[in-house]
Amino acid sequence: MSIGIIHPGAMGSSLGAALSAGGHTPHWASDGRSQATRTRAAGDGLVDVGTLRALTNTCDIIISVCPPAEAVNVAESVAALSFTGMYLDANAVSPATARTIAGRVESAGATFVDGGIIGPPARHAGLTVLYLSGEAARCNAIASRFEGSPLATHLVGAEPGAASAVKMAFAAWTKGTSALLLAVRALAEAEGVTEGLDHAWSVLTPELIDRFPATVRGTAPKAWRFAGEMREIASTFDHAGLPGGFHEAAAEIYEALSDLRDYPDATEADVIQRLTEPGP
Ligand SMILES: NC(=O)c1ccc[n+]([C@@H]2O[C@H](COP(=O)([O-])OP(=O)(O)OC[C@H]3O[C@@H](n4cnc5c(N)ncnc54)[C@H](OP(=O)(O)O)[C@@H]3O)[C@@H](O)[C@H]2O)c1
Questions:
Q1: pTM attached to this predicted model
Q2: Ligand 1: which atom is nearest the Cα of residue 90?
Q3: Which one of 13, 16, 136, 258 is least enclosed by Cβ atoms within 10 Å?
Q4: Cα–ligand 1 centroid distance for 67 (angstroms)
Q5: What is the set of domains in the chain, with CATH numbers?
Q6: Ramachandran assignment for 140, one of left (phi > 0), alpha (psi -120 to 50 degrees), beta (any other)
Q7: What does residue 92 show for φ and ψ, rounded to 5 degrees?
């Protein structure tokens, strides 16, 4: 079976590298993608077939790894090409969005598998897990391709949506608390009490002193993508009868930082300024 990756971003390209290392040939479609994605995909040994149409004709399995806010659009583009193979959505989306995607691709004749990836890009064993759910995940067609690679797989349920729910619950804490920390620091700045907050942190929660700059570095360049993920998490909480407001607010925090996309040198001052000054 040939496997296609839509698209080889930081995570998708690492999945391609993991497949290559296991003797499989990952494919992708460069049409419309940036030079950064082209360079990354070439470096990881993904074979460029040019267009999405060529990818759906070439591959039996397609893995969607894209900005979460685009996951439904990407699935619709694949369904529009009458793809009838196996479609894995591995994006950070809510269980409800995963089921919407299932409906789109299944109506075209594809088999849907729900997935969620937790951990950094899969370059080293033991850090990154692809959670899988749904009946189709049990046949092992996807998990077997990653055996022995840096990407571990773990089945979590028979229902599509379960793997996405694991991802939502995990990221609700990691990215949610990061957004809260940025907001807390911005509040202290707005009130002119940053020195006082630093003092209180040093006495009672010294771990936050290092965590704040690390959070700025880890979130600012990716904040544009995190906003969509926070909205998916908020909707997951709402559907479960829990307050979604925490993560709606986190989405606002990340949205305010969205122009720092791919700006690895963003400073603490850049972040605080965007959070404390009203937008245009
Ligand atoms: N990175 C991580 O550590 C990590 C960890 C766990 C899960 N994930 C999940 O993996 C997925 C992708 O993350 P990533 O880190 O690989 O993102 P990324 O590095 O930002 O890459 C995103 C890829 O999607 C493409 N893309 C951009 N805009 C698009 C659009 N409008 N429609 C379709 N594709 C578009 C990009 O192409 P261009 O270059 O042309 O813009 C790029 O190839 C997300 O669902 C994320 O939650 C990532």
A1: 0.94
A2: 45
A3: 258
A4: 4
A5: 3-157 (3.40.50.720), 165-276 (1.10.1040)
A6: left
A7: -80, 80
